[in-house]
């Protein structure tokens, strides 16, 4: 991910109210920014946790380092609360990978903001088509992605699948979005 991507202040979509009705203290502001080396361990931990229960593939710390410039992270109060990566595959195509929002912040619009930032970066680079392999198709649909036949993706993409422990029981579907030159960012949460 390019260091010129500007940090993006994000407000929380949901009001947090205690069961008794009184309002919780205001949540600390959330920032989206390109990843740096000190994010490697928290990114590893976020991905490692969800990779046990979702289609998100585990990644080694070394693999995260190698792809560090692909990553945008979500930070709150100095803590890493989300990550996502844009992996450019060829001149036309990029993949959104390793998309995770910490459990306590899910449903607050941050996943959508992260995808928008990654798609914005794809647009800046001149990528024409962005895809994701996911079990969260409705989430991606709200952001303008459409289900697509896996056969339209290059063989290179499947090399990773073959090494995946979930290969024989894979729940992933593919979705993509075509970026028109000079087009708009996808909608925020539908
Ligand atoms: C998938 C994930 C990144 C979504 O992030 P999030 O911050 O919870 O999503 P948002 O709050 O931005 O949701 C945006 C919209 O999508 C909807 N949405 C989010 N996840 C959804 C899901 N799994 N199914 C259906 N709709 C979903 C939200 O309700 C919201 O709709 P609204 O705008 O009408 O209210 C998050 O749930 C996550 O980290 N999951 C575990 C890891 C994972 O599965 N990653 C995706 C693999 S590619």
Name of the CATH homologous superfamily: Gcn5-related N-acetyltransferase (GNAT)
In total, how many beta strands?
A: 8
CATH architecture: 3-Layer(aba) Sandwich
The Cα radius of gyration reads 17 Å
Distance between the termini: 25 Å
Q: Helix-strand pattern, N to C?
A: EEHHEEEHEHEHE
Beta-strand content:
15-25%
Largest beta-sheet characterization: 8 strands, mixed
Count of all domains: 1
Number of helices: 5
What does the average pLDDT come to? 85
How helical, in percent, are the residues? 10-25%
Estimate the global geometry from the Cα principal axes. Answer: globular
- By CATH reckoning, the class would read Alpha Beta
Task: Detail the poorly predicted runs.
Answer: 2-19
What is the CATH fold-level name?
Aminopeptidase
Sum up the structure in keywords.
190 residues, alpha+beta, Aminopeptidase, eight-stranded mixed β-sheet, 5 helices, 8 strands, disordered N terminus, binds coenzyme A
Brief summary:
The chain is an alpha+beta fold and 190 residues long. It has one domain (8-13, 28-178): Gcn5-related N-acetyltransferase (GNAT) (Aminopeptidase).
């Amino acid at each position: 991910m390019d260091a010129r991507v500007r940090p993006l202040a994000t407000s929380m979509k949901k009001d947090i109210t205690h069961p008794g009705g009184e309002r919780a203290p205001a949540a600390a502001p959330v920032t989206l920014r390109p990843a740096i080396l000190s994010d490697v361990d928290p990114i590893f931990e976020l991905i490692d946790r969800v990779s046990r229960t979702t289609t998100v593939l585990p990644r080694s710390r070394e693999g995260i380092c190698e792809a560090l410039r692909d990553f945008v992270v979500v930070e709150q109060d100095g803590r890493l609360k989300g990550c996502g990566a844009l992996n450019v595959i060829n001149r036309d195509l990029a993949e959104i990978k390793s998309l995770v929002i910490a459990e306590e912040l899910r449903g607050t619009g941050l996943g959508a903001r992260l995808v928008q930032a990654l798609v914005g970066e794809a647009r800046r680079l001149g990528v024409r088509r962005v895809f994701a392999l996911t079990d969260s198709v409705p989430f991606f649909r709200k952001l303008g992605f459409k289900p697509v036949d896996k056969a339209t993706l290059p063989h290179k993409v499947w090399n990773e699948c073959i090494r995946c422990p979930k290969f024989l029981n894979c729940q992933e579907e593919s979705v993509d979005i075509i970026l028109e030159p000079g087009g708009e960012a996808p909608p925020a949460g539908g």
